[in-house]
Write a structure and sequence with these properties.
Layout: H1 4-25, E1 49-55, H2 62-78, E2 80-86, H3 90-102, E3 107-111, H4 115-127, E4 132-136, H5 139-142, E5 149-152, H6 155-168, E6 173-178, H7 184-197, E7 200-205, H8 211-224, E8 230-233, H9 236-248, E9 254-258, H10 262-270, E10 276-278, H11 281-298, E11 308-309, E12 313-315, H12 320-329
Parallel strand pairs: 1-2, 1-3, 3-4, 4-5, 5-11, 6-7, 6-8, 8-9, 9-10
Antiparallel strand pairs: 10-12
């Protein structure tokens, strides 16, 4: 298990990288403007450096839209051409990496929900002389695949901290809802929550592509075991379903979640969600573009072989009003 001291050290690295990114850009992160087509005052991409960002998110996913906003904003501010593509199928995601290699892009940014499925494609990119930075998931495999760095949060550490917060709130029986089969990061979150919570933790597998079934399954679990007094969602959409399920089951279970969107910040304000674990995914899009440009222009690396941590942070009633402003503009 990662020590608190090493996590704090890595967090300091992440903060330093964020500061460097802002200085390099000469301006702060721009707000989301639909597809970020209007960003007056920022440098426009010249095509001098072309970066392929390839995520495992699905089209229209609120979380990955914020990652995309971070990457495209950094590209506009630094004059980097950013091509964003995503596919939730690991095989097709690997094909997107292969395509980027064949196009001889200047850098690749890739999330690794299923690292083993992407291993060969990433290693081939590195062999072709293309620098790779991994983001979000699969940080424990990043260095072994040859990536320059990993930007994200340690999912086990984040889960452990979430479990501790629920324990401190007096909860004793936790339902951890996994919404995507095969995503190693989600299992790490629940395993971490189990370690930090100390009480009874049960995993519930659902399919995020079927929101009606998600709510029905959570509601059924709460009705079957009324002693469950906490639900940990691992996604904002599932958080909303969890709130509805708890109300439908007449359960007093507290709901907490990973990640943010406007619905979650509204639910925190209303008292329906206790807190959200914030991994600041805008930085997961923004920082790799800065890092790749610095690597290309000045042979700089960041992290010293350790992950550059963007979380966990926590959003609750004490700070939700400020964060909500940024969530609504698409940067948190």
């Amino acid at each position: 298990m990662t020590s608190v001291r090493s996590v704090r050290k890595a967090l300091r690295v992440g903060i330093a990288a964020a500061s460097l990114a802002l200085l390099a850009a000469c301006s702060g992160p721009a707000s989301n403007q639909s597809e970020n087509k209007e960003n007056t005052g920022a440098a426009q991409p010249t095509g001098d450096l072309r970066v392929a960002v390839i995520s495992h998110g699905t089209a229209g996913d609120a979380f990955w839209n914020v990652v995309k906003n971070g990457a495209t904003d950094a590209g506009k501010q630094l004059g980097v051409q950013v091509d964003y593509n995503s596919d939730g199928d690991p095989g097709r995601q690997a094909t997107l990496i292969d395509n980027a290699v064949s196009q001889k892009v200047g850098g690749i940014v890739v999330s690794m929900a299923n690292p083993d499925a992407l291993k060969t494609s990433i290693e081939n990119a590195v062999k072709a002389g293309i620098p790779v930075i991994t983001i979000n998931s699969g940080g424990d495999k990043s260095a072994s695949f040859g990536a320059l760095a990993h930007v994200g949060q340690e999912e086990g550490v984040a889960g452990e901290e979430a479990g501790r917060k629920l324990k401190a709130a007096g909860k004793t029986k936790l339902l951890c809802v996994i919404h995507e089969a095969g995503n190693v990061g989600l299992n790490q979150r629940c395993d971490g929550a189990r370690a930090g919570f100390g009480g009874t933790v049960t995993n519930l597998q659902v399919d995020i592509n079927n929101p009606t079934d998600v709510e029905s399954r959570i509601k059924g679990a709460l009705q079957t075991d009324p002693s469950v007094d906490a639900v940990l969602a691992l996604n904002p959409q599932v958080a909303v379903s969890s709130v509805n399920a708890a109300k439908g089951a007449a359960s007093k279970a507290a709901v907490a979640t990973f990640d943010l969107n406007a619905d979650v910040t509204d639910a925190i304000k209303a008292g329906d969600v206790l807190f959200a674990v914030d991994q600041q995914q805008y930085e997961q899009g923004y920082l790799p573009i800065v890092m790749l440009k610095l690597f290309r222009d000045n042979a700089n690396t960041v992290g010293g072989g350790k992950p550059v941590l963007t979380g966990p942070g926590f959003v609750d009633k004490s700070n939700v009003d400020k964060v909500a402003e940024y969530a609504k503009r698409g940067t948190r």
